[in-house]
Amino acid sequence: MSHLQFIFAAISAVVLFLYGLQGFSKELQMAGGDSLRKWLPRLTANRFTSFGIGVFATALLQSSSAVTSLTATLVDASVLSLRASLGILLGSNVGTTATAWLVSFKLTGIGPILIVAGTLISIVPWRIRLAGKAIFYFGLIFFALDLISTELKPLRDQAWFSAMLLKAETPLMGMLIGAFFTALVQSSSVTTGLAIVLVQQGFLSPIAAIAIVVGANVGSTSTALIASMAMNSAAKKTALANLMFNLVGAVLFYLAIQPVASLIGSLTEASLVVAIVHLLFNLTIAVIFLPLIGVIEQRLYRLMPDRSQAIAKE
Fold first, then answer.
1. Do the Cβ atoms of 58 and 92 come closer than 8 Å?
2. Residue 154 has what pLDDT?
3. Which of 33, 38, 287, 298 sits at a 20 to 30 Å CA gap from 113?
4. CA-only gyration radius of the chain, Å
5. Which pLDDT value is given to residue 214?
6. Would residue 205 be called left, alpha or beta, if left means φ above 0 and alpha means ψ between -120 and 50 degrees?
């Protein structure tokens, strides 16, 4: 097989993975959209419950980009307050680590089973058929990851591919690659899944993969930033806060990435190191910012005053 065929086969597998993520997220949002709008304001009454909602929703949807964009939309529609959205954003960062754990435990083999089960469930005459498509797409996510792993194996002996990945061994470059690729495909789950598969295949070191995953967190904020451009001031503040949380976390982990990875690497296998550090990264952000949500809200209003406030000052 030629280099070009290798590239197209790998890209096709990534596209299939992205399609599975988008389909799974869309099906769950369609199934629970009305209930979400009804119950979300009640469930986000304080910072801890809003944080929990962010964790649960992102782990369920397998897409922090979808959750942060949906959060900005709900703020724009005045369904959610800015303060409640900040807790959800912090929880969303923790929830997105579910992808890393699923891939690290090598559960990709269940993909074909879920695809078949989802197809069969979707054709039954009972109400449960509504869950069939979601199960199908969830299986497609794992099937595509397994396919990516298979397609990448022949590239092990390709010097050009190894040289390209070697650039990610520098933490700063790895973070930039992760941020750029995530902004490009609009999914941190794709970047995270790929990084861990590359570690399992022996292409990447855990430190390089961690840098890419941390960069992916920053890149994932682009979705909400783009979506908020046509929204009100509160939604823009929500998107800006999401960027700020992840940028601060990225700076902190850039300073500590090597000693933390080395310490955890001495205790467990390589792919689990990535999942553990990814979780620690997002938990650290939550621990730092969750107690400061009130202060952050005030700062955001000072940084981006509402139009009515600006007019009043004039």
1. yes
2. 64
3. 33
4. 20
5. 87
6. beta
Amino acid found at 129: R
| Torsion-angle region of 46 (φ positive above 0: left; ψ -120 to 50: alpha; else: beta) | beta
Residue 62: phi and psi, rounded to 5, are: 60, 35
Residue 309: pLDDT band by 50, 70, 90 thresholds? very low
236-278 pLDDT, tens digit each: 888 898 899 889 888 888 887 777 777 776 667 777 888 888 8
Q: Classify the C-alpha dihedral 267-268-269-270 as positive or negative.
A: negative
- In terms of Cβ atoms closer than 10 Å to its own Cβ (0-12, 13-18, 19+), residue 105 is exposed
81 conformational bin, left if phi > 0, alpha if psi -120 to 50, beta if neither: beta
Question: Helices 47-61 and 82-95 meet at what angle, rounded to 10?
Answer: 40
| Cβ atoms < 10 Å from Cβ of 58 | 29
Q: In this structure, what token pair is assigned to residue 6?
A: 């290798």
Q: pLDDT tens digits, residue range 193-227?
A: 888 888 887 888 888 888 888 888 888 888 778 77
Q: Which tens digit of pLDDT belongs to each residue from 79-113?
A: 788 888 899 889 988 888 887 787 777 666 678 88
Give burial (CB, 10 Å; 0-12/13-18/19+) of 153.
Answer: exposed
* pLDDT score for 36: 60
> Is the Cβ–Cβ distance between 226 and 188 less than 8 Å?
no
Q: DSSP class of residue 79?
A: S
The token pair that represents 99 in the structure block: 């992808």
- Residue keyed to tokens 């550090």: 277
Instruction: Reduce the DSSP state of residue 123 to 3 states and report it.
Output: coil
CA angle 284/286/289 to nearest 5° reads: 105
Question: Interhelix angle for 64-76 vs 47-61, to 10°?
Answer: 130
